[in-house]
Specification:
The protein is of the alpha/beta class.
């Protein structure tokens, strides 16, 4: 068998088959690729029927792209010797349940996307990559990831995946997007200091980003399921910060001084107080501020500049007058907060309202802009009348 492989490899080399792009049509084409230890071109395996097990176990390096896609009969992929590749893309293979790449350490573009029955993904240690994506699988574990400066990291819609350990990552040149993985997903970026693009974390049970210092694009947190959020080292977000639909009871950005665009905090059901410890050092918001929720308190102790509109809405104990006083540095405030009375007020108010056939314990706040407009209209009517 070894003699046959050696002969095939020699024949492939002599024919220049190891440095020409191959679009695989059948097993013969796969054999020609497998005869090369180093393949210096692209290999595309797209929509070939009748292949249930795909093996390229002799290839150690592919300098171009290896693309395996739309293989609806395919069930297993074995790349037993592959150590490096320009790109490895395994896309839209509906019946694949096992992918084995035990030696892979370096790959510029790694994409495992929409393989809905994939349960076993084996790689031992990705130490160098520019783009790392695992999307739409049923894998429950990931291999080791030791790259310190990847380009992008995106892990989405892997419903069985609960441990996402990227503690080696110190900075990214591009984006990070983590969302819709296992219900109790633990997400660790404990060494991360800089994100070159946008960063979004969603649907996590725990999140460790304690060293994150700077984000060069948008920073977003959606529908996470833990109580206390502390982004303890973040000093700068060059675009917007959005915190929406989370279970947070407390939020703290103790070192954040500047936001490059807008601040959006909305629909965090258990979060009702923007206190002195939430944004204690935030001085500048050149865009808008949108606050929506059940707020009892809003305080920005260091805020000096808000160039855009401030929008306030929701039901809580905070009135528009109180909120506008705290945000007096803003010239344009649109407030539609509704004040919910506390229990004592509700009891006393209940008797009065019931006498008039009502039982309503909320009062609508109105922004100072709206009040001014209403007064101006009333004066105009009075003048016209007389």
């Amino acid at each position: 068998m070894k003699c046959i492989l050696a002969f095939a490899a020699l024949a492939a080399l002599s024919a220049g088959a190891c440095d020409k792009n191959v679009k695989v049509k059948d097993q013969t084409d796969l054999n020609s690729v497998n005869a090369c230890s180093k393949f210096k071109a692209d290999v595309v395996i797209d929509g070939v029927s009748g292949i249930g097990a795909l093996s390229l176990d002799s290839v150690k390096e592919i300098t171009g792209d290896l693309i395996i896609q739309n293989m609806y009969d395919l069930q297993t992929v074995s790349l037993g010797s592959l150590e490096s590749a320009g790109s490895l893309k395994i896309l839209n293979n509906t019946n694949v349940y096992k992918v084995d790449i035990p030696q892979l350490t370096s790959v510029d573009d790694f994409q495992i996307i929409v393989n809905p029955n994939l349960k076993e993904l084996t790689y031992s240690n990705i130490s160098s990559t520019n783009n790392f994506q695992i999307i739409g699988t049923h894998v429950s574990t990931l291999g080791a990831f030791t790259a310190s400066k990847p380009g992008n990291v995106e892990i989405l819609s892997n419903k069985e995946l609960t441990q996402l350990d990227f503690s080696s990552v110190k900075e990214t040149k591009g984006y990070i997007n983590i969302a819709n993985n296992g219900k109790n997903a633990n997400v660790t970026f404990s060494s991360l200091t800089l994100v070159g693009g946008n960063v979004s974390f969603a649907d996590a049970a725990t999140l460790d980003i304690g060293k994150l210092n700077s984000v060069n694009d948008d920073f977003s947190l959606y529908t996470n399921d833990f109580k206390n959020l502390t982004v303890g080292s973040l000093q700068e977000a060059k675009k917007s910060i959005t915190v929406t639909g989370n279970s947070f009871e407390a939020i703290s950005f103790p070192k954040l001084e500047e936001i490059g665009s807008s601040l959006n905090i909305a629909n965090n059901t258990n979060f009702n107080s923007i206190s002195k410890t939430t944004f204690p050092k935030l001085t500048t918001v050149p865009g808008s501020i949108v606050l929506q929720g059940s707020f009892d308190n809003i305080t920005f102790p260091s805020l000096k500049t808000v160039d855009g509109q401030v929008s306030l809405s929701g039901k809580g104990k905070l009135s528009c007058d109180e909120a506008e006083k705290e945000l007096s540095v803003a010239d344009n405030i649109d407030c539609s907060l509704e004040v919910i009375s506390d229990s004592s007020d509700e009891n006393s108010g209940s008797d009065t309202n019931e006498e008039n056939g009502h039982s309503d314990h909320t009062t609508s706040g109105t922004s100072r802009t709206a009040v001014s407009a209403a007064l101006g209209g009333a004066i105009a009517v009075a003048v016209a009348f007389f």
